[in-house]
Amino acid sequence: MHAAFFDRDGDGVITFSETFGAFRALGFGLGVSSASAAFINGALGSKCRPGNATLSKLDIYIEDIQKGKHGSDTGSYDNEGRFVPDKFEEIFSKHAMTVPDALTSDEIDQMLQANRQPGDYSGWAGAEAEWKILYSLGKDKDGLLHKDVVRSVYDGSLFHRLAPNWNPHDKEKLNGIREN
Ligand code: HEM
């Protein structure tokens, strides 16, 4: 569901231009949107694809999205791409020290540092990009990133809230899955 938001035409494949367009719809400028699409589709396109894939290596196949998992993450997605509630809770029990159930920018940096596996430079970069972008999208006026906002990035509902018109088909599916 996290990645499916970006698949606007619902064909199961996320192209460079879909990632770019989704970042624009989320409110990012041309520079950040192009760089993010290049980074994400460049890194995941060659990994997240079945053996018999024929499309460009910049295209991400959602059916193989779990192959995009990297090291130095929180473990809130397992190796099959399933959400792991205990690992998610650990983010806040270990790192939310200033305000319960919310992270400051410094606490996110401490978490990223704590999750780093030695020498895993691509994992460090991936985790850093994911959390910095999430913080810029989800922080409140006091600079706090609340637990419910972080939860909503894992199932993609944050993206739908911020850019309600980008992917109406996927939103319908999401509403069917979530109780609220
Ligand atoms: C505004 C856009 C995005 C934000 C804010 C974002 C944020 C995040 C966050 C916070 C995580 C969790 C990392 C962790 O648990 O340590 C994550 C994981 C992941 N995201 Fe995104 N993401 C975005 C776009 C995308 C896109 C476009 C794709 C691919 C199509 C993608 C694929 C993944 C994958 C494969 C993971 C699992 C990585 C892992 O846990 O090792 N994300 N993302």
List the helices and strands and how they pair.
Blueprint: E1 13-14, H1 16-25, H2 30-45, E2 60-61, H3 85-95, E3 102-103, H4 105-115, H5 121-138, E4 145-146, H6 147-154, H7 157-162, H8 168-177
Antiparallel strand pairs: 1-2, 3-4
Helix pairs in contact: 1-2, 4-5
This protein binds protoporphyrin IX containing FE.
Protoporphyrin IX containing FE binds at residues 2-3, 6, 14, 19, 26, 40, 44, 60, 65, 68-70, 73-74, 76-77, 127, 130-131, 133-134, 137, 153.
Description:
The chain has 180 residues and is mainly α. It contains eight helices and four strands; from the N terminus they run βααβαβααβααα. The chain has helices at residues 16-25, 30-45, 85-95, 105-115, 121-138, 147-154, 157-162, 168-177, and strands at residues 13-14, 60-61, 102-103, 145-146. Strands 1-2 form a two-stranded antiparallel sheet. The chain has a two-stranded antiparallel ribbon with strand order 3-4. Helix 1 (16-25) runs antiparallel to helix 2 (30-45) and helix 4 (105-115) runs antiparallel to helix 5. The radius of gyration is 16 Å and the shape is globular. The relative contact order is 0.15. The mean pLDDT is 95. Bound molecules: protoporphyrin IX containing FE.
